[in-house]
Design brief:
CATH class: Alpha Beta
Order of helices and strands: HEEHHH
CATH architecture: 2-Layer Sandwich
Length: 93
């Protein structure tokens, strides 16, 4: 799938899988993936991995044709501080 192939709309994920493939195949981190099947299928950050990997990488964000990924990450970070609390303190350095 190519990023420019899809219409840009930030309100929903079109399930193109660019972020999932990039994280798994290029970065080898597997911090984001598909959950569920069929019409319930969606993209989700894997909390244990995303908390330590995503905040310092975020290389998949520009790949997202709808910018949904950025919004989802910001929401998860805002609503789930306990999920992301074990980040390294070196983030601010």
């Amino acid at each position: 799938a190519e990023k420019d192939k899809y219409e840009k709309e930030s309100s929903f994920c079109i399930l193109c899988g660019l972020c999932v493939r990039y994280c798994a195949e290029v970065k080898k981190k597997h911090a984001i993936g598909f959950v569920d099947r069929g019409i319930r299928r969606e993209i989700a950050f894997i909390p244990e991995l995303a908390a330590t990997e995503c905040w310092k990488c975020k290389e998949c964000f520009p790949l997202c044709p709808t910018e949904y990924l950025q919004a989802a990450y910001v929401l998860i970070e805002a609503l789930g501080p306990s999920t992301l609390e074990f980040r390294s303190d070196s983030r601010d350095k």
